[in-house]
Amino acid sequence: MSFCLLTVHCQDVIQDPTISWSFKSKSAEMKCSHKNLITHTQMYWYRQRPGETMTLIVYTAFGGQPDYGENLQSKYSAVKDSIEAGALTVKDLQPDDSGIYFFLCSDSYPAYFGEGTKLTVLDGVDVTAPTVKILRPSPLECRDQKKKEGKRRKTLVCVASGFYPDHVTVFWQLNGQNITDGVATDAAAKRNEITGLYSITSRLRLQAKTWFNPDNEFSCYVTFFNGTYTNYSTSIYSWWMGSGTLFKYSLTSIYIGETFF
């Protein structure tokens, strides 16, 4: 199958769920819907494996039969029971089915993409929550900047490690408020080939005066999905000279709203 489409993302196109995981030999279903696009009767599903480009899996239209191309119908099942909604089921899951699945609705130009569903096929490693720590600024960074003009900067590094699968997002807070300026996070988690567990780092670069303010609390949060979204966090102050992070460690479950100390 070969199609050329002008495509954009659209808030009126919804994919559910955004994250999914299941075991080998099981099935995974993802749904799509759109509103205010009643003329867009055509449905496309794409898969993007890590490090690869998107591949078209199936095309169908309301009232028509799915076209799976070279893909096996025994592997995929696409339904479009109405103009506004449809679904894709991936059957007999295998590790190489992991990736991001995108729904696209079209009739004429432009076509509209959903935000994607990240599917992970668990491959024998136990679901494991991350360990989170913050590394203090390097003394060498401080010393080198004394020789340069301009404002001195410090870099904090948040390291989340030992988790599986790689369903995580990282964000920083300063005194309880989210911050994005000066934040750089790895584009993807890295997997240890021996343990099968993942790690990810995020860096917060800020002015030295902000770091040395003794009242400032710097916190790193890692949101991990294991069926529900759970926040793991740790905090640090400039004056805390322990093993790299403050003793404070919190675990917050977004869905059930409980905090453990």
TrEMBL record:
<keyword id="KW-0393">Immunoglobulin domain</keyword>
<keyword id="KW-0325">Glycoprotein</keyword>
<dbReference type="GO" id="GO:0015026">
    <property type="term" value="F:coreceptor activity"/>
</dbReference>
<keyword id="KW-1064">Adaptive immunity</keyword>
<dbReference type="GO" id="GO:0016020">
    <property type="term" value="C:membrane"/>
</dbReference>
<keyword id="KW-0391">Immunity</keyword>
<dbReference type="InterPro" id="IPR003597">
    <property type="entry name" value="Ig_C1-set"/>
</dbReference>
<dbReference type="InterPro" id="IPR003599">
    <property type="entry name" value="Ig_sub"/>
</dbReference>
<dbReference type="Pfam" id="PF07654">
    <property type="entry name" value="C1-set"/>
</dbReference>
<dbReference type="GO" id="GO:0050776">
    <property type="term" value="P:regulation of immune response"/>
</dbReference>
<feature type="domain" description="Ig-like">
    <location>
        <begin position="130"/>
        <end position="237"/>
    </location>
</feature>
<keyword id="KW-1133">Transmembrane helix</keyword>
<dbReference type="GO" id="GO:0002250">
    <property type="term" value="P:adaptive immune response"/>
</dbReference>
<dbReference type="GO" id="GO:0042288">
    <property type="term" value="F:MHC class I protein binding"/>
</dbReference>
<keyword id="KW-1015">Disulfide bond</keyword>
<dbReference type="InterPro" id="IPR013783">
    <property type="entry name" value="Ig-like_fold"/>
</dbReference>
<protein>
    <recommendedName>
        <fullName>Ig-like domain-containing protein</fullName>
    </recommendedName>
</protein>
<keyword id="KW-0732">Signal</keyword>
<keyword id="KW-0812">Transmembrane</keyword>
<dbReference type="Pfam" id="PF07686">
    <property type="entry name" value="V-set"/>
</dbReference>
<dbReference type="InterPro" id="IPR036179">
    <property type="entry name" value="Ig-like_dom_sf"/>
</dbReference>
<keyword id="KW-0472">Membrane</keyword>
<dbReference type="InterPro" id="IPR042414">
    <property type="entry name" value="CD8B"/>
</dbReference>
<dbReference type="GO" id="GO:0009986">
    <property type="term" value="C:cell surface"/>
</dbReference>
<dbReference type="InterPro" id="IPR013106">
    <property type="entry name" value="Ig_V-set"/>
</dbReference>
<dbReference type="InterPro" id="IPR007110">
    <property type="entry name" value="Ig-like_dom"/>
</dbReference>
